[in-house]
Amino acid sequence: MKDYRIFTSPIKRLFAFIIDLIILALFGYLSSLLLEKFYLSVGQLGKVIGFILSGLYFTILESRFNGQTIGKKIVNIKVIGINGNELTSFQYFLRYSIWGLCYFSNGLNFAGSRYETLLTSIGTIFLFGIGFVLLFLFVFNKKTKQSIHDIILGTYVINCKYDNPIEKQQINKVLLPVSIGIPIVAFILLFFINTNSVNTEISKLENYRATIVEMPEINNAGVSSGKTNFKSTNGNSNTSYYLQISTVLEDDYKSKSDIAIKVADLIISEYPEELSKDYISISVTYGYDIGIWSTSNSFSMKMPPGSWTNKITDSKNENDI
User: Fold this and answer.
1) Residue 245's closest CA among 229, 216, 266, 231?
2) 222-277 tens-digit pLDDT
3) Which H or E run includes 130?
4) Which of 16, 198, 219, 281 is most buried, judged by most C-beta within 10 A?
5) Backbone phi, then psi, for 179, in 5-degree steps?
6) Contact 109, 245 (CB under 8 A)
7) 237 beta partners
8) What totals of helices (H) and strands (E) does the chain contain, helices first?
């Protein structure tokens, strides 16, 4: 009977991964001491830099040190192929890329694209789909402990103290179709049951974003809307509708509150229907994110449209003086 203790538990794999992320974060911080201006200048491409640096870390260490990174070495586990053979550097990189693309693509908003909001929405759905499959198999594949990247590459993560020859093991036949089928069904429901409302909302928000990025102070922006439901102490249910605007600045302007007010003035002037919202939230940020390290200087304001209107009026009166 097969001794499945040879395959590493999700807890040990997660612990090793956290150690590796801490090491990468430290490297990201040290590199920022020399390359901060460069990271600030590349914007969204910073995630590409982080993806490459992390890929080098995982690929070089695992290919040179018997399937182990520093984190895996500490918890005494390693990556192997079928029959216990080591992988090539290219195979290690492909294995990393499957989850790495999901991890580093999170938060990308396709800066500069006319269809940024639409692409971001589709990308988010796609990436969350991959993330769901990764997490689902990671937790529920109790037999071989493989997630989707292991299954595709034919790899296993094993406990080194049980380092015996590995023959190819089959996961539960139900797990893989279920893990892939759930997000597919969810996406079909989203795009086909609510097609009209989704497309209309995306088109409207894209117009908002295009208007905001024309401001000289703004490098990029993201716009979303929605509602929150809550119950009061007397048991009554209330719904609040909101508009949320996130902006990335061209420079580290001192008066970020003034820029937030200018954004509110622009949106309310161009799209007065937003005055019907319960509140509008605006954040302005200057910084960078390379995935393994980030820094930002942010300011945010969240108020009802009437309060924004008062702020806009006060600001204009002060400038007239």
Assistant:
1) 266
2) 888 888 887 666 667 788 999 999 888 888 888 899 999 999 999 999 999 999 99
3) helix 116-140
4) 16
5) -65, -35
6) no
7) 231
8) 10, 6
Structure tokens at 5: 């203790």
For residues 199 and 76, what is the distance between their CA atoms, to the nearest angstrom? Answer: 50
Q: Quick count: other Cβ atoms within 10 Å of Cβ 67? A: 25
CB-based contacts of 30-35 (< 8 A; 24+ apart in sequence): 31/293, 32/290, 32/293, 32/295
The dihedrals phi and psi of 143, each to the nearest 5 degrees, come to -80, -60
Cα(122)–Cα(202) distance, integer angstroms: 11
Length of the chain counted residue by residue: 321
d(CA 266, CA 287): 23
pTM of the predicted structure, to 2 decimals: 0.76
Cα–Cα distance measured from residue 321 to residue 316, given in angstroms and rounded to the nearest whole number:
9
Alpha-carbon span 24 to 100, nearest angstrom: 13
Per-residue pLDDT at 1: 43
Residue with tokens 């993201």: 222
Eight-class DSSP state of 235: S
Strand-strand pairing, 155-159 and 77-81: antiparallel
What are 58's two structure tokens? 């995982």
Burial class (CB in 10 A: 0-12, 13-18, 19+), 21: middle
